[in-house]
């Protein structure tokens, strides 16, 4: 195992990516600043459209060579820049899915001049046709009621009823509200349920997950919980400390 692995480097991803050997990563999960002016304790989300897309091109070109030939990428975006960034990525990879993460935002007021936006657009891309993908690891079990409703003889013993269903491309998972037990002090923390699905489906056990923009460290926590290795970067030292705390929490008995 390289000295670069199972570490969060508190530095700019563009510099940090040079530490990682080419073709050493199974899965790249990227949740970059959205280009919407959010405050991460730095100016990383304050670029204008042209500069944001140029910066995206730079980190994409630095990160993709790190993937193994059967590796893949999930990228969290919003509708504002997903069209341009999907085109950029389609010139470099094969697009497998557009996944909608429905954040299950409650209906309260909202926009008056447009429809309220309540989803993230996630791009799922692969380097090659033989990309690693383990659907069985992420199937959703049918509940007892559904199984009962399907108890007619044509369904009995049906394999699909036993093994559960494909999670499909609309993932309805609540965002982490302030009181949520997973919640850390980061404005755009992603739920473990969403990131663990990516890890289990697209990184083999014991494999390596790279996240260039760790934030509160959700990808590292997900990787550890799923028995995968991780590596990543984060600019803000306060978030780096938060990540250390979250990872240390996994070693406490109640986290098991
Ligand atoms: C959308 S957030 C990631 C949230 C993360 N997925 C989570 O669940 O907590 C983006 C993060 O990237 C960090 N960041 C921005 N520019 C960066 C850069 N050039 N290198 C490393 N980190 C960067 C920001 O400080 C911010 O914490």
TrEMBL record:
Family matches, as Pfam families: N6_N4_Mtase
UniProt record, GO biological process: methylation
Keyword annotations of the record: Aminotransferase, Methyltransferase, Transferase
Highest taxon, organism lineage: Bacteria
InterPro entries in alphabetical order: DNA_methylase_N4/N6, DNA_methylase_N6_adenine_CS, RM_Methyltransferase, SAM-dependent_MTases_sf
EC numbers on record: 2.1.1.-
Molecular function terms, GO-annotated: methyltransferase activity; transaminase activity
Chain ranges of the DNA methylase N-4/N-6 domain: 25-243
Stored Gene3D superfamilies: Vaccinia Virus protein VP39 (3.40.50.150)
Family: Belongs to the N(4)/N(6)-methyltransferase family.
Protein name: Methyltransferase
Record organism: Noviherbaspirillum aridicola
Upper taxonomic lineage: Bacteria, Pseudomonadati, Pseudomonadota, Betaproteobacteria, Burkholderiales
